[in-house]
Amino acid sequence: MERITTIIVDDELEAREGVVALLTEDQQINVVAVCANGIEAIQAIREYHPELLFLDIQMPQVNGFEVLNSTTKEYLPAIIFTTAYDEYTLQAFEVHAVDYLLKPFTDERFFAALNHAKQLLNQKNTATQSIPNLVQSRVKSGQSSQLINTDSFASERLTIKVDGKIHFIPLEEIIWIEAYDYYVKIHVAERFFLLRDSLKKMEARLPFPPFVRVHKSSIINQKYLQEIAPQHNGNEYHLSLTSGQKLHSSRSYRDQIKNLITN
Fold first, then answer.
1. pTM of the full predicted structure?
2. Which of the listed CATH numbers 2.60.220.30, 3.20.20.140, 3.40.190.10, 2.40.50.1020 matches domain 144-262?
């Protein structure tokens, strides 16, 4: 049985020790380095060329994404992010992470991610399909997408092409949309779609109402708005959606929120 060379990177001692303890239960895993910061990680990756990397994101001086940017694609391992922050999920998708473990995670969740990584690494057709491509083909909840503008029912739905398949998304099913760098993330029930587009262009395509821009990085469907909580300054609000999502409005969009309250 070939063992999988593995590196663990986390600036918290307890987190590093926790991952090491979990991995000792798997005889197929060979931990060759445990790193306390990004600089150590870069050096270890260059020395050992690991197949699997457990990587924290927020670290001083050199963060997890900077570690990956310093690694040549030739030696890029399968990546499982371990982090206490959920705002980096889109960036993780862009670098084709195998999984994204949000601290504190359960043992069951950890081993599910590990088994997923092992399945990918054990694929026999690596000559024709690289780990990043394998990972991308396995992502179910969000895939790089393309908006098609020729739909004759454009006023009622968005038509999106994802990996050769056409998806028709009724506008009434869109809960909210967020911006992230050069992408927009369209949230519907139990999944999302990624589009390489700007939120400004997306806003222009959507009818008002029910879609309302409440922040430079978010548009909501007011159908799913559950609660508006004014902040002390009277210019900003906390918004709760029926999906459980909590959003924050900015001062620039206070008039839109006031119209929501009035209407």
1. 0.51
2. 2.40.50.1020
